Structure formats: C-alpha cells, structure tokens
C-alpha cells in the first residue's frame, strides 16, 4: 500500500472515531446527507451516499484538516493529508480555505479550491471547477463566494474576486471580475448579466436559467 493510501486510510479511521464521539458532528453529517438528497436527484439512500460520494468525503476531510491548519504546528501534516484526500477523491481543497455549511460538490472530480478561498452557505459546485489565484504574494488571492451560489461545470474563478450571494456562474465561464448579487456570469472572459424580470438566477433549485432573458 502506498504512503498516500495509508495516510488516507488512517484519516478515514480517525474521522469515523471522531464522528462517533461528537453529537454536533453527527448533526452536521445529517445536514450534509440531507443537502445531497436536496441537490442530487440521483440520491437513493443515505448509505449509498455515505460511501460513494467523493465530494462529501472531501468536504468532511477538509473540516478536520482546516481545524488542524489553524494551529501552526499542524500545517505540514494538514497539507500532506489534503494531498492524500486529493488522491482518493479527485478534489483538492487547501486546508486553509474557509467553507460554510451545506456545501455540495456534484460529480466531484478535478475540483481545486485555493488557500485563501472563502465559500458561504448553501453553495454548489459542479465538476472541474477551479477557485484559483493569480498572485504569488502571501495575501488574499483566491475568490470569495457568497451564500446560495451555483458554479457550473468547468468554470474558473480566478483571483480575489467576489461572487455575490444568489448568483450563478455558467459552465466553462472564466470569471476575473466581481459578480454582483443575484446575477449570472457566462462566457470567456465572463460577462455579467443582471436580472430582467427574474427574481433569482437559478430559482433556488440550482438550475441555470437561459442567459438570453437577462440584460
């Protein structure tokens, strides 16, 4: 067994023991499973979701690694373990990233979330999304996503830009400027469109609307 797989197996055992000992963690786990059921119509039951959704596995691992990252002595093991999680799940979340509640990654693969990225509550990402940086300085260099944001497959959000709450990023869009609340951003580079008689860009149901009806 490779060192990466050994690290991943050890992390899984530790996580299981931690969940069993903490009622607050079990409550968050229940919330995550309910979120998966809400966001993904393919969900069949909790057991299948628990063992076969790499996006959830990556999120659960990140919560523990983020706590470890907050202690300077824990930064090297947190970084190494995050790479083990990446190898197993296909999702790379830097342990320094800040992530809110009810976060969901659908068809998790090729996800990259940088060190200074910040993600609000009720955010959903599809596969191949990058929340990347454009600076080599030790500063805020990754995106900030507000609450209730949808990011389509293959989208790249680069630099310390802000994506406002309730907004949607179209598939394969490249976002390099701020996106206001309740907006949609599509294209390369992304063009921001504002609502035209539409209250919410994805209706709270995570379905991207036709940008042709926006101005």
From TrEMBL:
Coiled-coil residues: none
Pfam short name (any one): Hexapep
Keyword Transcription attributed: no
Catalytic class of the enzyme: transferase
Catalytic activity: L-serine + acetyl-CoA = O-acetyl-L-serine + CoA
Pathway: Amino-acid biosynthesis; L-cysteine biosynthesis; L-cysteine from L-serine: step 1/2
Domain of life: Bacteria
InterPro entries, per the entry: Hexapep, Hexapep_transf_CS, LbH_SAT, Ser_AcTrfase_N_sf, Ser_O-AcTrfase, Serine_acetyltransferase, Trimer_LpxA-like_sf
Record keywords, A-Z: Acyltransferase, Amino-acid biosynthesis, Cysteine biosynthesis, Repeat, Transferase
EC number: 2.3.1.30
Gene3D superfamilies the record matches: Hexapeptide repeat proteins (2.160.10.10), serine acetyltransferase, domain 1 (1.10.3130.10)
Family, as annotated: Belongs to the transferase hexapeptide repeat family.
Protein name: Serine acetyltransferase
Organism for this UniProt entry: Brevibacterium daeguense
């Amino acid at each position: 067994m490779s060192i990466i797989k050994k690290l991943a197996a050890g992390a899984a055992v530790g996580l299981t023991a931690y969940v069993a000992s903490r009622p607050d963690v079990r409550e968050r786990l229940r919330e995550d499973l309910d979120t998966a059921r809400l966001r993904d119509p393919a969900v069949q039951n909790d057991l299948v979701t628990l063992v076969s959704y790499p996006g959830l596995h990556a999120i659960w691992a990140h919560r523990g690694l983020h706590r470890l990252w907050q202690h300077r002595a824990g930064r090297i093991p947190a970084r190494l373990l995050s790479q083990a999680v990446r190898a197993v799940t296909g999702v790379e979340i830097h342990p320094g990233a800040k992530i809110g509640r009810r976060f969901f990654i659908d068809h998790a693969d090729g996800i990259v979330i940088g060190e200074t990225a910040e993600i609000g509550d009720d955010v959903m990402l599809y596969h191949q999304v990058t929340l990347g940086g454009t600076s080599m300085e030790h500063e805020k260099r990754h995106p900030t996503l507000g609450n209730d944001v949808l990011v389509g497959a293959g989208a790249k959000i680069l630099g310390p830009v802000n994506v406002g709450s309730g907004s949607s990023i179209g598939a394969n869009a490249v976002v390099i400027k701020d996106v206001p609340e309740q907006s949609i951003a599509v294209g390369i580079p992304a063009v921001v469109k504002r609502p035209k008689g539409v209250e919410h860009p994805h209706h709270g149901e995570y379905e991207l609307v036709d940008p042709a009806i926006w101005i």
